[in-house]
Amino acid sequence: MGLAAARIRFAAQWPLYATIPLCAGLFNALTNKLAVTMMFFPIRRRGFSLLGWQGVVPKAARRMGGDVSDLLTKDLLNVTEVLRRIDPETLSQRICTPALVELGKRLVKDEVEVASSLVTPALVRRVIQRCVARVQDDVDAFVDVRHLCVERLTKDPSRLVRLFKTCGKRELDLVVSVGGWGGLGLGLAQMGAWAAFPFSWTLAAGGALVGLVTDWVALQLLFRPVEPRRFLGVMWHGFFLRRQAEVSRDFAAFVADELVAPRHLWRALLEGPRSSRFVEALADAFAEELPGGLGNINGPLRGALEAAAARGITEVAADPAAYTDPSADYVAGALDVAGAVGAALEALPGARFERVLHPVFEQDEATLIAVGCLLGGLVGLAQVPLY
């Protein structure tokens, strides 16, 4: 009796009933698009009190930036090995410009006038070579690369947003597509349920179920299974993990340009939390070039040399491009950060590789599914007066 009544209702208004799956697909795609947007925007919190919102990624920038930096420094980039690719002599030739020599002469004259005549291009090149060798011997004592990466990713959260959107563009689009096509498919069941049980709660409950199921399924498709598995004659593998080679190239290019490009490494060396060690190394290098041990630890000019080194580093740090740009192409080519990071990331096992993007969804995964469920229910409820 109930099935016959449902058939009669459907036959009488089938064009109207046909809009149920169409609405389910369309609005589910739109709500998923909204959920994806809410992951990243707004960058800064907007609104008031409980009505305010900040993108999931910008809100968790400190934690996510730390996770990315840990992945980079622990698994992908051996900073000591990479920096040792730089040849001290070649770098000294590139960076020893007339401007740098003139800066050295002026500072030494101000602090140690008796030694100012010794500052020649040849001496500056030797000092640079000594400094480079000193840094290469103990990189961690001079440059905190993890601190550099965390600061760059958290001070400007839009940079972290760009990283995740670049690496996960296809997966983010997939969440929207699964919402649309999944909503259309489940909408057919929702249509049948409404024909059989035309109660006000049916469309609302169906819409909530569609939103919940499609969001959950989309997230599973992205990251599960971690390793390829054959099931029912089909090879299953997380969509994100299938693209490991492509994502590795995108991630490596971002790291090489946005996080540890030569200009950023110079700033970390000159202004980072361990820059005082470089002041000492520069004073030591110059002292070793002075005759008679004048600049040694207990020598009469030691304090003046350290003052000159500190002032010099401060002036270079104020406009590093003016002094380091002549060496930028050489340093970038020698380091080849993109090549090193890309190869290491592509070689990671799936369980480690998925951590590049999964934290974006993991942070508020339950919240996002709940939002999809709620919005789906509200859309279904709004449809009731139409039917």
Domains counted in the coordinates: how many? 2
Largest sheet: 2 strands, antiparallel
Task: Please identify the structural class as seen in this structure.
Answer: mainly alpha
The helix content, as a percent range, equals: over 70%
Helix/strand order = HHHHHHHHHHHHHEEHHHHHHHHHH
The oligomeric state of the chains shown is single chain
Q: Give the terminus-to-terminus CA distance.
A: 21 Å
Low-confidence stretches: none
What overall form do the CA principal axes indicate? elongated
Q: In percent terms, what proportion of residues is strand?
A: under 5%
Order of strands across the main sheet: 1-2
The total count of strands amounts to 2
Number of helices: 23
As a whole number of angstroms, the C-alpha radius of gyration is: 30 Å
Mean pLDDT across residues: 86
